[in-house]
Design brief:
heterodimer; A: 5-stranded parallel sheet; 12 helices; B: about 900 residues; alpha+beta; 5-stranded antiparallel sheet; about 50% helix
Amino acid sequence: MITSFPRAFRTFALSMIMIMFLSMGTTQAVEKAPVLVGMDGEFGLENSISAQAIELGLRTAIVEINAAGGVLGGRPIKLVIKDNRAILARSVSNFAEFVSMPDLVAVFGGRFSPLVLGQLPGVKAAKLSYLVAWAAADPIIDNGMNPNYVFRLSLRDSLAMPLLLKSAEQRGFDKVGLLLLNGAWGNSNLAAAEKYMLGIESQKIVGISWYNPKDTTLIQQYKRLTDAGAKVIILVANEEGITLVREIAALPRNQRVPIISHWGITGVDFFNNTSVALRKVDLSVVQTFSFFTADKQMLARFMKAAKLSSGIRNIKEIRAPSNVAHAYDLMHILAKAINLAGSTERSAIRDAMEKVPEHQGLIKLYQPPFTPARHEALGPAELLMARYDLRGILVPSKK
Amino acid sequence: MAALLAIIAMTAIAGSSWWMINRQNDASIHILLEKDVGLQSARISGVLRGINTRMSGLTSNPLITNSLFEITDKERYLVPFLNSIQRVSDVPVDILFTDFQGYEIARNGNKSFSEQEFNWLREKFPSGQDTSRIQLGEKGDELLAVNFIVISKSVEGALLYRIKLGDLPLMGSAQFVHGKESKLLHSPEHEVAAVIDAPPIYKHLNFTILLSHGSLDTEIAWWSLWVFFILGLAVVVVVVILGLYLGKRLTKDLLNLESFARRTTVKGFGVDPSKEVVSSLEISSLEISSLEISSLEVSSLSESINRMLENLEQQHTKLNESEIQFRTQSQRLSEVIWATDIGTWEWNVQTGETVFNNRWAEIVGYTLDELAPISINTWSNLVHPDDAKRSGELLTQCFNRELETYACEARMRHKNGEWVWIFDRGRVVEWTEDGKPFRMVGTHQEITERKQQQDEILFLNTGLEERVQQRTEELASYIQAIGKHALISVADLAGNVIEANDMLYEISGYTSAEVLGQNHRIFSSGTHPKEFFAQMWATITRGDNWYGEICNRAKDGHLYWLDAAIVPIKDSHGRVVRFLSVRIDVTERKLAQDEILSLNSSLEERVVRRTTALTEEVAKNESLVGRLVELDKLKNDLIQNVNHELRTPLTSIIGYMDIIIGNVDSSLEPKLTESLAIVQRNALRLELFVEKMMQVSKIEFEQAALAISTVAIGDLLGDVDKALKLTADNFGVELTLQLDSPASDLLADGDVNQLEQVFANLVNNAIKFTPRGGKVTIVARHAHIDGGYVEVKVIDTGIGIPVKEFPNVFKRLFRASTALNADIPGFGIGLSLVHFIVQQHHGTITFDSTVGKGSVFTVTLPTRYAPPRPDQFIG
């Protein structure tokens, strides 16, 4: 025993030194290792600009966050991007890869509600926060998860549709036609419209027409609605909006009725594909934000970082402005949550998202951004109608 | 023995007949099977094509492609859709729809796909090529195929499908073979196969349909064997019995005849044949008559022998005569051949043996010995290959009796290497019994010289024809071209017009009926002396061309001048037979010349007069231009001076005034303080004036370079409205903007900055000249006139402008008396600037005003930047 003590002590001392050394090394490594944030977007989809817009918002925020010292005491945030080409299976596969990445704290989704909805079972199983800066279907947040790992800083169909209908009414259009995408997004909007119309007597939905994704013509649907007496069309569409505007522009003037559109059209290169036709069509689109009405100080800060992240010098260069701002604000909120969580532990970050007390964003002062009962950061107050000006810039409509 | 042989023969006949019938039967069956297998192959090809078309069509079906994007409602539309496809091209099919990794999205029923099938599918994903395979299923072979779903060049999903080969609509005992098996098809006598023309996706499977002979009723024709055998047997029995009977009868007579023959000596036809024959025949007759021949047949035989002997004698005589005749003819023929210098040939078509005469060999420069051994190949080797072919064809026609005589011109290689032409001619003179040519004879005649002459003539003729054709075409085009510009006519020797072109009728005003047959004198204008025509006539009748200008009179009496050429046309003997006239209308040139002549007389005087006037005008303009340049320079200098001499000190004055007023001591005399305030106010006013002047100058300077783009006037007015709201509030005036057309209609081409100046000035003026509590309204609408205008009205309830001052409103530095009276500050620049800019935009500005009630200024701007319209003033 006597002879063994010093050996035991020596072994213990050596172990302690080793542990200390290793733990120091680990701490050093943690400080340097980036915190990963995933983004799964429709980059490879032809004509689409939505994923690129979200990426712009994220990168701009990350430039600011990293310049200010990163998160968790000096760790930079690194964006990991995966392309889903607007294919659900690819999106699911991408999400699975994100789940397997250590130090990945959250995943940002893209424009398409069906794709986001398709992730929900995976999100629930992986307990990884899923952040939505574009997709607007209600069930994305009303998903029955408890705790809910999905957070949205974007429009919500049940808010957008009432605004679209109200905008029509304010402009004196009492007979409305709905032109909807045949799918979850269209259904979500129809439900929102029907709910809103309960008790409304001054306005009437005179017809509902459906089209399938990538339909090459929508004019029959449009004509059915106008034949039914619609004085304005509420459009829920993505790239199909281009087809519709071109087709309406080709009609005689007296057969063209105004289009009040959901914002899917802003996710595609809408203006460049319709610019000439668009002058002949009265089209307004719902937005949540305009750089033209932004807080000057916040705008200057954003533009400074945007120049670094993407070389953007003028707000006119920003396409899909609302969603750029969504991603930008949401990334900042996530950074605050990471710091609040104090680690990259995923459940802790989810919880922290609900506990960020406030955030002064580009869009507004979020007080707080999210709560356990509310995973939508934006409300009806942020919504506005906008129009493309002659240079293709979305500018808020005059009230 | 004979009977036995007969039986064997008959049995052989029966057997071979039976074999032939069965072969024929087989052949019929084979044809039927081939037809059947062909039909089945075509049918299966069609089915496979139908399956492939349907399945590849499904890959672009919106319900399928949309399901790659969204599966939320797949139970509502996708599954029912797939379930509705249970059969493709009427063949039951199991379909599996997968994502880009080969994971199931939906199926068309309950049939599951095995792990091996999934693995096979996943292996195929990297290539993205539609493909198929055959696999062994529970109920036999199955076809497993995949069509990939490609979106924007990327494989995003797949449709895997499975079909039992047994479900493909094969008929009868037809069966599928595929892959390597199909290459191992054997015993073509017993099986018939057809390769299916399948779409590329199945091509590599080598689908083949196999039909076996056994599939049809191929019962051996045993009945025919028995029938033939029994018939044969019956015939043999009858023949044997008959043979025995006749044999017995004939044998006796023949034995008698033989003994008689032994006794009788026929001495032949010797030195004195006639005597000997008669004597011998007599003996024979006697002997034969004395023969005891009971048989009628042998009796008639002996008579036949007597007649034969008689004929032999006659033929012998004829033969001698013929021989003599032949020798004579042969001699003559040799002489003819020698005299005509022709080569002869004789050819045994069957054996190829050939005989040529010496001349045949001489034609090609050889002796017969040199050509030995001679055969038909001697000819084949020497004849030109091209001609050999034609010769062969002609010979074939002869052998087929399509031609009686073979005749062919051919080239043969001479010993010296050159080609010699021969005329080869011959006939088949002997045929074999079965109708084939046996012997052929003919001649060769050398025709080299004649051919060369022919070639030369042909060559000359060909060239000639081409040249004539070319020349004719050239002439026709010349005549056509000339006819477009010239009057052409042909006259006979008496000067009567035979032919004329449309131009002549057009210029002269006569119709063809009035001209043709008439003398050229009908065109005479009477302006030329008789000598003129006499000289012309003398020239052309002696065969020379005449050129000159001639004045003619048209039917309506007006004169026209022609530049004419008259060419005599001669016959082959050089005699003049016609006159061709080609004339060009030069009336205008003549008139111009006349005018020039008349002008020339007074030219000098007028030149001097005009030159003086021009010199004066130029001098005047030069001084004016110089003055303008000078003034422009002065203006620029002035602007520069204003900039430097006024703005600089003004800035100092205003700056110091701010300091002074800011530091004014309260003890300072109030009057002085007030004076300082006046100085400051006026300094600010002066600064504003200078700014305005600079602005006018700048805009005038930039007028040539308007930056025209489509301007959203609605938005622009919104900006103006927003910017001046504060000013309006300060003046206690209510400012409202009213857009009466959709913003999309309020578009006009223009320079956005300058247009902003226009509306800002108008609204600013309106606010300034409207008393507190008044209203300024901006109304914009789209006006559907002249291709569309945007009309903007700025309406105020201000002090108004007196009617008498209306004409001066847009003049620079003009200020309305009402404004001066009300002591409202201003410089009289704004409206002139507005007027100027609107004019630059090809728009209009009008106004109406009533003193004490207010003014309405109306600006209209064309939607499209267009040429200017005159301004309209209302007043």
